Every structure is written in structure tokens, then in C-alpha cells.
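A quick aside before the break. I want you to see a complete sequence-to-structure record at least once, exactly as it would be stored in a machine-readable document. Don't worry about memorizing anything.
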Amino acid sequence: MRQVLSAPPIFPPRPVRLELTDVTLNGDLTLPPQARALIVFAHGSGSSRHSSRNRAVAEVLQHAELGTLLLDLLTEQEERTDVITAEFRFDIPLLADRVVGTIDWAAALDQTASLPVGLFGASTGAAAALIAAAKRPSGVRAVVSRGGRPDLAGDSLESVAAPTLLIVGGRDDVVIELNRQAFGRLNGPKELQIVPGATHLFEEPGALNRVAQLARDWFVDHLSRSAATGH
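That is the input. The structure line, written in C-alpha cells, reads:
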């Protein structure tokens, strides 16, 4: 059952192909008429473009006038291999490089070049998003992690300047501890939110809706502030 309650989707996504340095990725770009920022979704598996959870969160962001880019960080061949071996979803440097490439792609695209960028990372994609934020400090203005593994960002955590929100389910004990460890290493503005009663995938009634609200408020606050100061 879908958990995020929002108005019917009124912003149709546009399929895009991202021609990066050494790979072509597929994505779905949605830009509300008065979009004030672009949120790039990063997941450790190439299925993120079709993830019902990510799409539900994206719709809430879109209704707050935030553009969204849901993309597959893996190619179709890599995804087929990953389903069997899980090797690519834990290749954090590879995923991070592709998030960086996506940030550069958005900066060069006419429709998104003027928009401040936020990153929404889930699972190992959260580590990739944080590494990308460290590598592109002027290009990333806010980061949100949903049930992520920010600890896998390693030494890059200390270099993340973007305001970062870590969201974890209250019953996801192991991931809570890993997020607390990563939280202690972040030097920029930061917040750790634990959703009571939620497990790793936020499948409980109302849990994903809470994630979407927290992400929306974080992005609206920090990206609007960024735009207002001209950064």
C-alpha cells in the first residue's frame, strides 16, 4: 500500500539520457513550472528510477516546487550482474563518480543550470551522495539520507559542507548506530532524525510519509536559503 499521501501527480516526468564521461545513464527528470531547486536521487541499485518509495517521496518534493531527477546509477548490464552478485551497489567510488557526473550534467543543462542542487540518497547511495557533496562543495547545497549508509563515505564525511539530514527508522538498530557514527564525523550543519517504529524500508503506515515531510522541509529550508544568498 502506498504510504505517502499527496495530490495526484500533475508534473509528468521526462525521460533523459545522461551522457557522462564513460557511461550513459537513464533518468526521469521532473520540473514543476516554478521549480526553485533540483533534487537528485541516488540509490545503490539501478532500480531507483522505478522505486515506488523514491517516486512517492519525489511527488511530495515536486508539490513543494522542487524539481527531481530519479536515475539509474547502474547500466542495465551492471544491474543484471548486481542482482546476482550485489557487487556494484557496494562499489561506492563508482556510484559517487556517477553522482558527481550527474551534478555536472545538471549544471550544463539549460533547464537546470540555474537551480541549486540537493541530493537524496538511500542505502549505499547515501554514501555516494555524501562523497559527491564533498567533491562538489559549490554544486551541492543540501543532502538527505533515507535509511542510508553514510558511514561508507569514509574520510569524505569531514569534508561535507552541505547541510545534511540523516533519517533512520527507529527499529533499524544497526543502521541507527552506523548513522550516529557518521553523524559525529560531519562538520557542517547536520541533523539526525529517527522515525519511531519504522524499520529499514519505512514500510509501516505513515513512516514513508514522515520521511517525505522531513526531506521536503530540509530541502525547502536550506535550498531556499541558498538561493536567497545567491549561492
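Two observations worth writing down. Strands lie at 14-19, 24-30, 38-43, 67-71, 117-122, 142-146, 164-169, 190-195. The helical segments are 52-62, 76-85, 92-108, 124-135, 173-185, 207-228. We'll return to this after the break.
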